[in-house]
Amino acid sequence: MKFQLLILILMFSNTNYAQSNLKDICGGFQDDEYFPLDIQKKKIVWKETFYQEILTDTVTIENKNYVKFIQNWEDGSSNEIYLRKEDGMIRQFEECCEYDTTKLPDKIFEGAEWLSADFKKKHVVLSLSGKLSTPFCNYENLLVVEVLTRDFKGYNYFYKKGFGYVGATENGKLFSYVSPD
């Protein structure tokens, strides 16, 4: 009898964890930012693989404070991303360039455009009311940013207020999305 009770408790606790994790990735707060820098951890499916993005620290680079994220890939590799907020903009440190790349401008409106620091990518805000369906969530009211490369490949990145990045498409086909742990 005790064993059966233990099994039931474990089943319900795992179910609750999965539900709260789905609530976290599918939820968001309408009055919050599209690119919060305080999300501790996300699991992101990227094409045929995935990575865990983990907020690890605050660091100073060239006299500017950045939030450091580590992306731990399924194959064991990892990379670091350094982001900061400045005057309402989200900026990413770029070793290549004299300036940081703007990830998101301070004024977000349909039609807003900007270039990456290396001038290899053009970003355009397509919508503030985008929709995206993933295997786990049906999102609405998303910020949709189109990223065009020099070879004219276009990707749409989707951001939810209060949670940030939730997915991406290429030619309308989903290739990346957040996933429960």
Can you characterise this structure?
With 181 residues, this protein is mainly beta. It has one domain: YmcC-like fold, CATH 2.40.360. Helices cover 14% and strands 52% of the residues. The chain is built from one helix and twelve strands; from the N terminus they run H-E-E-E-E-E-E-E-E-E-E-E-E. It has one helix at 2-26; strands spanning 41-46, 49-61, 64-73, 78-86, 89-92, 101-104, 113-115, 121-133, 138-149, 154-160, 164-170, 173-179. A hairpin with a 2-residue loop joins strand 4 and strand 5 (89-92).
The residue-averaged pLDDT reads 86
Low-confidence stretches: 1-20
Assign the CATH class: Mainly Beta
Rg is 18 Å
How much β-strand is present in the residues?
A: over 45%
Shape: globular
Number of domains: 1
Roughly how many Å apart are the termini? 31 Å
Structural class determined from secondary elements: mainly beta
